[in-house]
Each structure stands twice: as C-alpha cells, then as structure tokens.
Amino acid sequence: MKNRTIYLLIPVLTFGLFSCEKHLTQQDPYVLAVEDAYKSNAGINSIAANLASRLRHEQNFSFGGSFYGAGINSNRHQDLARWDEAIYNHHTQWQHPGGNQNRNYRQYYDYDLIRDINIHIENLLNYGAVAESELRYYLAEARFYRAYTYYEMAFRMGGVPIIEEVYEYTSNPIEYAKPRNTEVEVYDYVISELEEIMDDLDIALSSGVTLTRPSKGVALALLCRVSLYAGTLAYNNDINEAKGLKLPSGAVGIPFAKAEDYLQKCIDAYYELEEMGIYSLYRGNGDLAENFYELFTKKSGNPELIFIKDYDGINFPNYFTETHIPRSQKLGADGAMLNPVLNLVECYEDVASKSNLFDVYIGDEQVENMSDNSSSFDYRIFETAGELFEGRDPRLTGSILYPGSTFRGIPVDLQAGLAVKTPAGYDFVHVDDINNVENPSNYYNGERKTGIDGPHRTSGFCSHTGFHMRKFLDPNPGSETGGQSTMPYVVFRYGEVLLNAAEAAWYLNQKDLALDLINRVRNRAGGEVFELEMAELDLDRIMNERRVELAFEDHRFNDAKRWRIADEIWDNDRNTPTAVTYAMWPYKIYAPGDPDDGKWLFRKLLVEHRGLSSDMGMPINFGLDMYYAYIPVNDGNPLIEKNPYH
Amino acid sequence: MSKKPEEMKRTGIKLLLLLLHIIGSSIGLNAQKIITGTVTGEDGVPIPGVNVIIKETSAGTITDVDGEYSITVPSDDAILVYSFVGMITQEHPVAGVNEINVILIEDTKSLDEVVVIGYGKRKRETISAAISTIETETIVRGTDNTVAGQLVSKVSGITSRQKYGIPGQAPRIQIRNSGEPLFVIDGVMTDISNFNNLDPNDIENITILKDGSAAIYGVKAANGVILVTTKRGQLNQRTTVNFNTRAGIEEWTMFPRLLNAYEWNYAQYMREVNKGELGVPVEVARAELEKWKEGYYNPETGEDYRGFDYIDEYVNPAPHLYSSLNISGGTEKTNYYISAAHVNQDAVYKDFNFNRSNAGISVDTKLSDRLKVGYQVKGRNESRTGPGLRGGNDYERVLSSLYNIPPIYRPYANNNPDYIYDIPFRRGNNPAGYDIEHSGLQDNNLLAVQNIWTLTYETPLKGLTANGLFSLDYRNRTIDNFEKGWKSYRYDAENDVYNVTYDMSASGHTTLESITEKSNYQLGQFLLNYTSSFSSLHEFNATAGFEYTDTKYNYIQVHQSPVENEFIPLLGTNENNTVNERERYTSTASFVFRAGYSFANKYVLDFAGRYDGSWRFPPGKRWGFFPSISASWQISSEDFIQNSSISNWLTFAKLRFSYGEMGDDNVGSDFFYLEGYNYGSGSSYFDPAPWSNAGSTRIIGSAPKGVPNTNLSWMAVSILNVGLDLWFIDHLNVQVDAFKRKRQGIPAVPDDIMFPIETGLDVLTENLNSDGVLGIDGQFRWEDRKGDVSWYAAVNWTFARRKNFDYYGEKFQNSWDQYRWSRNNRWANVDGSNWLAAQWMWHTTGVFQSYEEIENYPIDLDGRGNATIHPGDLKKQDCNGDGIIDDYDERVLGFGGPDYPWDDFQGNRQPILSVGINMGFEYKGIDVAADFAGGYLNTFTPDWGIKVGLPARNQNGLYVNNIDVWRHEDIFDPSSPWVPGTYPSIRDWQSNAASMWNDFYVRNVNYMRLRNLVVGYTFPARWTQKVSIQKLRIYFQGKNLFFVHNSLSGYLDIDPEISTVNVFDYPQHKGYSFGIDVTF
C-alpha cells in the first residue's frame, strides 16, 4: 500500500515540478526577442530608430524650452553661445551664461553606440529576414551610422580604436584592450566605409530622396566633409608641428602627403553629388533674404537639403523657436536667449562695396562699456534704426533680426534707451528692468526709454547685444510654445558641399573651380553683383563665406579648429579683438527742439553677459589642449595614449 | 429567541445523560450523583465550551452556550477539573454539594493559548521561535487609520518612524530594522497596502515572526513576516453585534515658529549688514523697519506693513471620524462574521481628505463531520482627494508655500479676496489658490477586493487534515488629476485696476490626467497537517504542502498638458495627450514543510523549510531551499527547579534557540537574465521606408538590453536568535531575545574588474557584499489584580543596529583612508562613501565670545587665519591636534545622514532603539490605558535655511536661528559691539557654522511620546442588559498628546520623527476624540 503511494507520487511530483517551471516562466512585455526583431521592417526600423536617435548632433533642438531646463550644456542649441557667433542671455541669480571650456569640451567617446551598431550589423546578417535589397539598405545604413560616429569621434578626439567586433562578456577583459588607431587610419576607415556602402544607399527615386535616413547623397555629403576636414589637418601639418599637435604614434597628426588625396576626394564627392542631379541651391523665393530664410523652413520642394534631423513639434518637440524668439513675440515669458553678437553681424558684407565694417562713429571706432551712461563721442546719426543695415548681404536679413527687421510681419522692437543730448555729448537712459518697459512711471519725460526686445544690460529673456536669432525660427504662429516648432535641424546641405569643395580646390590650387563654387553661393545670396572677381578671392574670403553662409549651423567651432586658428583668435586675452564679443545698441535721440530729435545713433559695446557672475565679459578661451578632447581612460585599457597637452 | 436555547439545552442534556449513562455503565455505577453549575468569566459573562472533566478519568462534559453544565459523578470523592483555553485550570472537589459555580480567571501566562505561526498554529508553551503576538484589544487601542500605526509601541521587535502625518499615510514599520517585512493575512501572502488598510477592529491577532522561523516563507521572508488573523465567528455562538464610533479633532503635533513680517525684515537687514550688502541707505532701512514693527497700514495709499501669518490662516484643526459595525455568530455547523467600517479624516489644509470604507464577510460551514468550507471576502475603498496642485506631491507644495512665502506679502492683491496676489518670487504658489475651486481636483481612489476560499478535510487517518486555500485579490486604482490653472494679480493703485500678471493656464501649467492601475493576484495553497501524541508526553506534528502565486499588473496613464479646456474634466483625443502603459506578470511556486516534536512540553524541536521558486531568476537558478530549526527547553519543568525554592518565585522559564535562512529576491531589474531588444528606448522621426520616400513618421526605438546577467541570485539572509521567556510569581513576564541577522550576496559591481571602454561592455553586478543587523529585543510586563482593580504595565524595546560586514574590493593607501572610507565590519552609519548614510562632521566645543578670543585661538578654523570668524561662530575640535581644522578632524557623530526631498530613503531612518511603554488599569468599569512610543539613537540632519538662516529675500525662515542670534547692538551699525545669542550671526553661506557639517546643527534625536491615551467607562451590565445591551462603553482617546522628551525642543521645535533637511514634512497629528462602543 505504502509503496504504491510512492510510485504514484513520483510522476505526480515530476509533473508538478515541470509545470512549476512553466508557471515560473514569464515573458518580458517590454522586450523583443532578437530573432523576432529582425523578421520585419517594423522591427528593424525600430532598432534603426534607436541608433539614429543616438547620433551626435551638437545642436539638439529637442532640448531646452522650459525656463529651468534651458541650461547651457553641450549637445544643446545654446552651445552656439560658446564661441563668437552669439551669446546666451539667460541671466538669473544662479545661472550665468557661457563660461569658458576646457579639454573635456565636446568629448565624445560613444563606444556603447558603436557596440550597439555592431550588434545590429551582426544581427542583420544572422537573422535579417526581409527583402534582399532592403536588407542591403539596412546594412549600409548601419555602417553609415558607424562611419558617422567614427567621424565625430575622430574629429574631436583624434585617432581612436576602430572596433567592428561584438565582444563577448568575459572574466578577463584585459584581453580586449586595444591601442588607438592612427588619426589617418580612422579617417581612411570612414572614407572607405562610405565608398563601399554608397551604392547600397542609392535609393533616389523620381519622387525625391529621403532626407531623414542615409542615402547616397548623405554618404557623399559626409564623405565631402570628412575628406575636407582630414585634408585640412594634413594641409596644416606644419602648424600642427609648430603647435605640438602631433603624437609620434600617429594617434594624432596627419602627414602633409595625405593632403592632396583627401582634398581631391572632397572635390570628387562634390562632382558626384552634382552628377546625381538631385541637389542644388534653394531658389524658391525671389526675395533673396526671404529665400535664404526659407531654405531652413521648407522640408519639401527644397533641393538643397541632403540630411536633416526632423521634428514634428509634438513627440519630437523643437524648442529652438520657443527659446530664442524675440521677446516682443512672446510677451512676459522666456525666449530671446540666444543673441547674435556684432562679431558675426559684421561679417556680412555690404553688397555693393563688399566691405563689412559698420561705421557708427565719426572718426575713430570706439568700444564702449555698458556701464557708462554718458559719453562725448561723436556718433553718426541715422534717420531710422534700420538704416545702418540697409544694403547688406541679404543673408544677414535671412539669419539675424536687427533694428528695423520684422519677423512674422511684426517689427522687432529693439531700442537700448534714449540718448539724451547734453552740452557735453549724450546721457543714456535705460529702463531699470525689461519688465517695466511699458510702465509709464518708468518713462523719461513721457517718452518710453527702452524697446520690448531690449537690448538691456541686466535683464534676461531679451536681447543683450542688439540682435536676435532668425535662422531656424519657425514662421508659424503658435510654434513658440510647447516645443511645437517643426523646423528641421540641417545636418548636410548642398551649400556646404559647394563651400567644402571650394576650399579644397583653393588648397589644391584649382582656383577657377574655387571661384566658380564661391560665386555660386554668393550669387544665390546676393545676386550677380555680389559675385567676386578672381582678384578678390583669397582664403580669408573663403573662410568668411563659410562664416556667414553657415552661421549657427555648428560649423564655426569646427572650422576655427581645423584651420588651427582657434587658439589664436580665442586666446583668452581681453585685448584681442576676436576673443571678446561685441554688442551694437541702438538709441533713439531725445533732444526736443533739436533737429536730431527722434533720430538714431548706435554704440558699439563690450558684451557683459559672458562668463561668470564674478567675471562678466570674460574673453573666449581656446587652449592648445582643446584641439583634441580628453580621452576617458580607465584601468581596463592601459594601451590608450593621451592626447597632446593632456 | 428564548425558547430555542431552552429546547437545545434540554436535548443536549438528554444526549449527555445518554452518553454519561454509557460511560457510567462502563465504569460501573456506584453512588452516582448529578452536579450542575455555571461557569463564568471574571466579568460575569458565561463561558460556553469549558471542559469539565472528572479528574483522573476521561469522562466529562462541556458547558453550553449559557455556560451551564451538568455532569454525573461516580462519588462524592470525585474532583472536577474546569479548563478552558486562556484560562487558569481549576479543580473543585464535589464533596457533598450539588451545584458548583466556577469563575474562571484569565491565565496571563496564556501558555495554552494557541498562536498562529507560518502555515499552522502552536500552543504558546511549545513555541521555540522568536515571535511577538498582539491581540485584538491591544490592536484597537489608538486612533490611527492604519494597522501599522496601531502596532507602534505595542510590541517588541517592531521599529517605526512616521515622517509624514498625512491622512491615510502609515508609519514605516520594520521588524528589527531589517527593511519592509512580508505581510500574510489569513494565510495569504500579500502586501503592505492590504495590511495597513484593514480595519483594525477586524483583526483577531497579529503574530510577528522575528527570527529564522520566517524561513518558511522563503525567498520573500528576508525582512521578517507579519501574520494577521482576522476575526471569524465561533460555532455555537450567539449573535453579537458590535458598534463602535468616535469623532475627534486633530491638528499638527508641532511645527516651528516662523518669522513674522517685522522679524523677517529685521533678520534680512541683519544679514545684509553682516555681509556688507545692505542695498538701501541705512536711514531708509531704519524707517522701513520701524513701519514693519508698528504694522503701518494706509488703505488710501495702499501702503501695507502688516505682514501675514500663512500658517495661522491656512492650517486649521480637522475632523476625524470613525465608525465600525460587526456582527458575528454561529450555529452548530456554521459561523459567520460580517463587518463594515468607515473612516473619514481631513487634513489640516483645506479640501484635503482621506476616507476609507471597509466591508467584509466570512462564513465557515461544516458540510459534514469531516469537511469544512469557508469563504471570506474583504472589500475596501480608499479615497484620497485634494486640490489638483501642480507637480507630484501636493501636500509638500502646500507646506513649501506656507514655510517659504515671505511673510511681508499678503495672499490677496490689495486685500481683495477676489484677486489672488501674484506673490513675488513665488509665482503660481499661493495658498489662497490651493483649493478645489481654483486648482481643480485630484482624486486617488483604490478599490480592493480580496476573496479567500478554504477547505478543511479531516481524513480518516487520525490527526491528518488536508487544507486547501485559494485566494483572489483584485485591485483597481484610479487617479483622476485635474490641475486647473488660476490667475494671479497685482493691483495698480494709480488706475485702480487689477492686472493679471501671471496666468497659469496661459503659461501652459495645466494638466488633466487619468491613471488606471489594476492588479490581479492569485494564491493557491494545499497543506497536509498531521498531529499525533503518543501518550500525553510525546507530541508530534507535521505540515507539508504546496503553494503558488500569480500576479498580473497593468497600469495605464493618459496625460494631457496643457489641457484642452478647464471646464470639463474628461479626456478626449488631443495632440497634447501622452499615453503610457505598463504591465508586469509575476509568479512563484513553493513547497513548504514543517515538523515538530515536543516532549512533555519541556523539550521542543521544530524544523521548517521551504523550497521556493521565483520567476525573477533564470531556469536552473529558480529554486532555493530555505530551512530553519528551532528548539526550546522549559527549564522550569525540570525537577531540579520544581523541587527547589526557586520555583516559588520563578514560575516559568524557557530557553529558546533558533536559526533560519531566508531569501530576498529583490536583486535587480526584471528579466536581467534575458537578452533581446528593449522596446521604447529612443525614437526617431524619420522615414520608415526610405526606398519609397514615405515621409517622416514616429518610429519608437528599440535598444539592446545589454549583456544578460546569468550569475545573479537572491540575497541569502540568516538569523540566529537566542531567547528567554520568564515568569516571576505569575505576574511578571520577561522575554528577551538576542539576534544576529546576516544578509549575504548583496548585488554590487565588482569595481576592480574594468572593461576597456571601447568594448562598450560594463562589468555586471554580482552577489558580493554582506551586511546585517545585531540587536536585542524583549519586554517586561507586569499584570496583577487586587479586588476590583486590575492593572498592567509593560515595557518593550527593540535595539537593532545595522552593520556592514563584507565590502568587495576595498583597497586603501593608508590607515586614515581606511578609517575614513572603509565599510568592512563597520556600523552602517559609519559609511564614509555614502554621505547620506551618515554624516562625517566636526565636533563643536562652544562659540567665540569676542574678537580677542578669536585672535588668541591657536587653531586655524577657516584656513585664512580666522579672518572670517566673528563672535558667535563655532569652535571646532581639532581632533588630531595639528592646529588646523580639516577633513582629518571629522568624525561620525550621528546615526543618519541628511534626508533630501528627492530621496527620503537615505536619511529617513528608523531609530536604532525603539521603546514602547504600555500601562493601564481597570476599576469598576473605568478603564485607562496609555501607550508611550519612543525612538532613540537617531539623528536629524538639517541643511539649507536651517543651517544658514535666511539666505535671500525670496523666502521665509525659522524664528529660532534668525532672531536668537549673535548680532550687533545696533543691527545697522557693523561697528557696534556684538550682543550674544544662541546661534551664530546670520551671513548665509559665509557663516562658518553654515558652510560645514557640525554637531551644532546636527542633533541626535531621542524622544518618548504619549501616542495613545484612552479613558473609558463601561456601564454596569446589570443596567444595560435591561435594554438588551451586553456592553456599553464610552471613551476618550488622545493621540500624540505630548512628547516626554525631545532633543529638538527649544531648537527646531519640530515633530521628532520628521527628517527632511529643511523640516518641510507634514508632521503627525495630535488629536482628541470621543467615542461610544456598544455590543448587543
């Protein structure tokens, strides 16, 4: 009897335990099994979406917005204010804008992303179960993301280890330690990858080509940029030698001998893009200034765009408009945080004279301090505030709001204060706080002192420099709240390709090509009269052309770095004109009975809103240790060599 | 009603007589005699079911529902033995009488009392584990809404802290400071929410498994187990109806005095002068201050220097109501219990409320002699409502406004209650708008229903019963959060208009949100119980069984911000909507067993264990075995005690020992052992089909989960416990337990293993570290009765201190580093690498009285030759005597670190020593009881405004550290002499006291509070029974009436259980209530 019970119990218990195991097995509702993920386009797209979202773009428009969230961190649009294009005017008790940076600036060493891309490539090869041509595209796309990431790393960090392997977890990780590849190897790797995948990405259709995922055009645009960058570094080899920006291992430094090869690749990429016949400069609007502005607002019917980061204003909010729209268009709230500086505004030439200085003083040019509230300088008098800017390169109007500009049909209200004429010169009166602009008790003899948009010395959320942003601002009303702007962030556009090739051609002494390319850009910008003669073309012109054409598009810092001039122009010296930033404040003259009454004058001022609360108006610093950012090291990889000056 | 029992009685007697006749005939008839009588308790209430046995025979009877019995005894020599559970057994010789009426006395030792333990019951006498029990009458004493609140101070082994006194919020209780315990209600493993929200009146008793005996609950029992048994009806019990209701009023126990408008300006000017930052000419400041002092107000000009006391206006006493009704009874085959209760508690803030309704039924019925089925359902509805204020913690927002708004601002623009003032620096924060009318409604509603089906079958094999249990627990929480915006105004006197200067709606700060959270929890259990005794000496029992659980959880949130309209609080399709859904499935399966043997109740040996499987671990690593063993020795039964004079005063002594191993499966994220792609990580707005140029679409991203961790397993906890139970002269009970808890396999990253960054790999967590708790708990309890008076007094304590044992990979360069940073074998508060665990700080030895003293002071306190030190500043002890004060002079001087609002886990610790004192007496219907709860060896670590005083003009501060300070005789003249105060002069962060951690501000907290005071009067039964009322009692209950000692009093004057660094916690309530308790 007992024995029989035991025999009966054994199968019961076995079954019990077996069904227990089943009972204890739960499915993770948030996770796709690897095999399942690669069975469909939807699964693969989801993985690609993750990778694409992790690509590094220095001006991520989806950050910021809220009053408190709008810190000036790297990888955000406010990062523009670090250098000499704009300043960041978010002046509160705790948060002071744009202090100087160190060797960690733009450090980028995202091997987590590299690993995930490598896993993706491996999984595509092992499990990919979609149409063959689509699979080929996905593979090429993944390799594009990897090449893009290596380009971003190489330009910031120098040579880095090239990893294509997916490492297994191990108890002896030291076996995975790898030294840095040379800078040349990384650039060559990026270029060869792009060349290999280009055809698989060739998916141009009559209906147009995708702007949001890699295409052949995107690969060529990156190739064009990367080879220009690598080519410039090689071309500037002697400067690198002189400044100590080389390592014997080659982890940093590109021999001059490589210059020609790289630069020619840049030009060839331009030729190939041109041949594709898809891309051209945008000329959709007859008004040249509006045309240039529209270039950044039109996502369809715009042949100039090659690759963009797209926003829908809902799930992918774009806070750029919200954060930087002039105060007058968004009363009582935040905004106006990025203010272009005079350093940039002055780069836009007069169309007729092709000269670029603003002459607001009679006699010598002056630089005044914001805290001086009177002066005896002799100012030029203007009938209107906008008069000073008439006749400038239309791209100025397309990119920046200045006194006299309109945005969304509404004039910008820029007026620093009243210039009260005195026997000795002028007294300058300003409102005490930008919030009190319209308060009659703050008026001067019944006259409003300051415009709603500023500029103002101490207030935040209005202009500090006398200028506002326009490029990337959304023209659609309502887009200035809740990140609802849908403006794209332009990663690659044809204008850049032309300027890249022009510069490469200049170095390679293909001067006709250089002139032709520059003039194509200038023609679109200011018409035929704005084109240059060969005699007028020099490297400074080419550099300046990039500065004005590509303003705020995250090129200025990279350009100054690869030209190896960054440490000279941003030398942390208050006496270096390029290391400090300037404002241009418009004043309405108050002199009842005087013929100048109601007319305008301008003061050129040193910008105060830069640096720390204890050191306002701090000059810009770029040390030699910043040409290559600091590579994070740990004991796991003792083979990593440090960058120069680190 | 009156006839039936009579008939039953008669039938019963007939049956009995028949039975006795049979028995009697078997022993042989000889001078037979019938004895009758009534057995009652001390209160005169008849006790049914008392065993009446003729000594040294097996013949006997039991008393009926009226406590009456009748028994035929063989002769006058017979002795009758009267025994009943929980009562002292009595013997009465027949000796020629025909009627014996017996009054049974409650046995305070309750050795026969049956105690609920894991998966079974035991006689108290044969308990060998460390457990604490608490009975219904003790549980219901107090006015806390939560069961945890009702446990505080009443039982050893439990520590508590209640940082928030928010209505509906429970104190955090732990068993021996080991973390949140497992809760088991009526045999069903459940969670803290079900536990806390039982109606305390429905609880029969609670058992706390403090030691290794919790191991029978396996992988979830690491922190101990609290077993709750709810009330059920009894068989053959007359229908009893109990109704209990009380109403009271409550307010904050204690909150610090804030600055009024004059004091605020006075302190601001002091700070500005001390820092050399006075922004206005001195004469202007003097004149202003004078106006604040007199409270100048001129309605004509709008000049208003009256200030405002926000706490006075917006914190008001709140009502607290409680009612419960239960009906219980039973027939021969069926017993039942029906209950309902409702509690309604307002907060001291307008429109904030907590209310809960409980209802339940339990029925057990015998289908046959062997088969019994039971069904129990408990439902409850918890509702927490309040104004829909911005942000997550609405209570905190109100408190933050009350404590922060500078008292110079009044809540309404131009004092016109139609226009809420736009308070400078506090835009959108004004208590005048903190009501449902302005801010909308937040409604958090929980509906929970628990069903338990039970089946008990007595098998034909004697002593073997089979028990089945199935429980289904369904919970549904809905949160409707409607955060409306309101406008705030400034008054423009010149034009006599009120301008909207801040419109919350227009700024987009409105939210409409709906959350539904559902869970469905199943538990099934099958147990075989076997008991057998081979003679009266050997007792053997065993339990074996199987248990499984299964949980489904689903959460869905729809969030709209800003809202489409502010009129209809219903969600519709809107582009501002975001939707978020989460779900989770969990399951466990377990085999439990227990076997116990006791010899003459003297030697007891108990084994128990659980073979536990958890879904959290990968196949092959799911199952773990958790054994425990315990033994006890009742020394007092040994002859050498019995025969000695010791037994005159030591009436009972038992030595206990136990050891058990438990688990904690809370070691990592769910499914850490699986690979795959995490859906929903990162997303892109891009072209889903680039080859057809489809345009941008939102594609939700998926990222690799990372390397699966296949090595991680549960934490293993072991507890060793040695205990002693003693009774002295039957009145004094002493229980002491010493224990050591060790937890091994705490997940940690082995930080000496480094992967090259370029691999994209990180080292995975492993079960590496260990910690534990050491301590002693116990109680002393005296119970006695003299005549009409009975009284008791008890002290219980739990001393439980956490300690780190092994920390993986510690390496130190020198002995200082080791002293400063090592965690190995150190108390948990000496954790140098976690400044939130405890504060390393400077010891202060007093304050400087003069500049002369500062100049002559040999030690450089500020690194600048004491140039920044002023009279009133702190002297810090130079522990290593090197003449400077630096990191090397820091010591751990407290038991806990700072509790910052974003992480209340760290600083908000349980006291190392918790003490409860309970006392009471009864005299002729009057009953008085008091429960004192004390917490010792804890630390309050303040920061921010508490340390620095007023830091800026945008907030208010406390009176104590802003006014009672060192100051200049003429506060506007920095050259005038210093006048002493208790606290250093205010210079915000420039002050040497403020800028560093020191024990001048950080205080150890020790307190004893009168948690409950109960005074009741029960009307004599002879009066109330005339109106069919068995019992009528009226009572007063006081809650938190005072602190016996508080080391923060005179300093911050805050409730001692508060922990946030800026004291912005909603303190506990103190309350007074009156109630009536009727039993029919």
Helix content bin of chain A: 25-40%
Query: Radius of gyration of chain A, rounded?
Result: 29 Å
User: What is the straight-line distance between the termini of chain A?
Assistant: 84 Å
Number of strands of chain B: 52
Give start-end ranges of low-pLDDT stretches of chain A: 65-73
| Helical/strand content category of chain A | alpha+beta
Q: Name the assembly state.
A: heterodimer
Cα(first) to Cα(last) distance of chain B is: 14 Å
Q: Which value, in Å, is the CA radius of gyration of chain B? A: 34 Å
Low-confidence stretches of chain B: 22-29
Question: What's the number of helices of chain B?
Answer: 17
Describe the structure.
The complex is a heterodimer of chains A (646) and B (1080). Chain A is 34% helix and 9% strand. About 1% of the residues of chain A have low confidence. In chain A, strands 5-10-9-13-14 form a 5-stranded mixed sheet, with no helix packed on it. In chain A, strands 2-4 form a two-stranded antiparallel ribbon. A two-stranded antiparallel sheet of chain A has the order 3-12. Chain A has a domain of 282 residues. Chain A is α+β, with helices and mostly antiparallel strands. Chain B is mainly beta. In chain B, helix 5 packs antiparallel against helix 6. The radius of gyration of chain B is 34 Å and the shape is globular. The two termini of chain B are 14 Å apart. About 1% of the residues of chain B have low confidence. At the A-B interface, helix 1, strand 1, helix 3, helix 4 and helix 5 of A face strand 29, strand 30, strand 34 and strand 35 of B.
List keywords for this structure.
heterodimer, A: about 650 residues, alpha+beta, five-stranded mixed sheet, 18 helices, B: about 1100 residues, mainly beta, 22-stranded antiparallel beta barrel, 17 helices, 52 strands
